[in-house]
Amino acid sequence: MDTAKAIDHALMRRVQKDQYDAFEELVDRYKTRLVNVIYRMLNDQNEAEDLVQETFLRVWTHRQDYDFSYCLSTWIYTIALNLAKNELRKRRKFKFFSLLEMSEKGLELPDPKMGPSALGHMLEGAIGKLPSKYKEAFLLRDVEQLPYEEVAQILGVPLGTVKSRVNRARAVLKDELKPKLEQSRAMSQGSLVPVRAL
Amino acid sequence: MRCRKARWYLSARCDGTLSERQRRGLEAHLDSCEECRREGFFFSEIGSLATRLESHGTRPDFNLRMRAAIRRADEAAARPVTWPSRLATLVLRPALVAAGVVVLGLGGLGAWSMMRGGEVPQAGVNETSSAVNPRYGLSVRNGQLATQAGELIPVNGIDQETRRLQERYLEAGRLPRDYVMEAVRLGDSNNANLTPRYVLPTMSPDQVTKKVSY
Asked: Which of A55-59, A79-83, A97-101, B187-191 has the lowest average pLDDT?
């Protein structure tokens, strides 16, 4: 058993004995990771925080049901992603959209600099445009660095399907960012050949 | 190795899941293919950028709000279940659900009936001795219309009254049960062995007559 899993299980045993300080430690271990994933799924910081809070609330409420044969992270990510998917389903149904989000998008301008942060910003935008089944696989595997097996458990799909979705997501992102990446590559190689203007 | 296979391996190379043989084959291909080398650079850049994305984090009061939510949940769980709320759970809620199902079922049946063009329910016409039209004292016996005295009902063309009935149906958006009966009642006595089954809402009076006459 790896260290992270051992720590999680030790904390969860204490949580099952109603030790709230252990639960808070657990919250601190996972809250940022969960907010990042859910924020990228929903593109709404407040909603992401609310759903993460709801996730932890469910962990606390059902703490006695936790099965120690699974990773705690698998359980927590599964709850969080299910809540996020429900929220997305609701949004599709009622066609909610945020005016603030729209105005922010309207003001978004391409960064003229070619630094890694600009590329990261573009990657965020490209991830936002991915279909959700590719997005969740990519976020869990490449952003959160979870093993494929765990991603497959969280998403409830076969391992091969996860690999295929991650591969597809990477290919789409690569195509989306290709012009910027070309520039980045030319700069990293010190090329004197002028790159195509974007 | 062909470029197509190499491109598939490039993604797997990011995960470090290639076998030694696959890795050597890919490296050999990359040495000779500038296009795939560039693709490989893009894949590794995407992977590297993904691990360095900006963290969004939580607001400083997240843990406080979390604690408050947990306290509320614990209090709610500890609260004893009162009789009114138990009654609501055991009786009212199932009753509401059942009522909802009935309403939905009736609505669905109505919609289905409308979609099928206001078809007259076949059972109403063909059931033995159960489909009595109180207005004309009609009944159906073994698929045939008859008066209460047992006389078989004749059929003929459509007259003004039947047209009016059809208009009434069109206005109401549904087919009255006695529409066929009316059409039948207004006929002649040449066709005694009729078996009226249905009348479609889009039928002209002539078509109705023909259909009913079969």
From this structure: B187-191
A183 backbone dihedrals φ, ψ, rounded to 5°:
-65, -45
Are residues B57 and A32, on separate chains, in Cβ contact within 8 Å?
yes
Domain coordinates in residue numbering, chain B? 3-51, 122-213
Q: Which residue of B has its CA nearest to A38?
A: B56
- pLDDT over 50 at B119, yes or no: no
**pLDDT tens string B36-74:** 888 888 888 888 888 888 888 888 888 888 888 888 888
Residues of A in contact with B62 (CB under 8 A): 31, 49, 52-53
- List every span in chain A annotated with CATH 1.10.1740.10: 1-108
pLDDT for A111-164, tens place per residue? 444 555 777 888 888 898 899 899 999 999 999 889 999 999 999 999 999 999
Lowest pLDDT segment from A26-30, A36-40, A93-97, B183-187: B183-187
Q: Is the CB of residue A62 less than 8 Å away from at least one CB of chain B?
A: no
User: What are the start-end ranges of the E strands in chain B?
Assistant: 139-141, 144-146
Q: Count of alpha carbons within 13 Å of A150, Cβ hemisphere only?
A: 19
CA distances from B122 to A75, B177, B198 (A): 55, 10, 7
CA B187 distance to own-chain centroid: 41
Residue B209 pLDDT greater than 50, yes or no: no
Write out chain B residues lying below 8 Å of A143, CB-based: 50-51, 53
pTM: 0.61
Contact A142 B47 (CB under 8 A): yes
A1-108: CATH number: 1.10.1740.10
Q: Does CATH number 1.10.10.10 belong to domain A109-190?
A: yes
Chains A & B: contacts with CB separation below 8 Å: 99
Start and end residues for every CATH 1.10.10.10 domain found in chain A:
109-190
Q: Is the ipTM of this complex over 0.90?
A: no
CA dist A166 → A127, A131, A159, A181 (Å): 12, 12, 11, 19
Cα(B211)–Cα(B214) distance, integer angstroms: 6
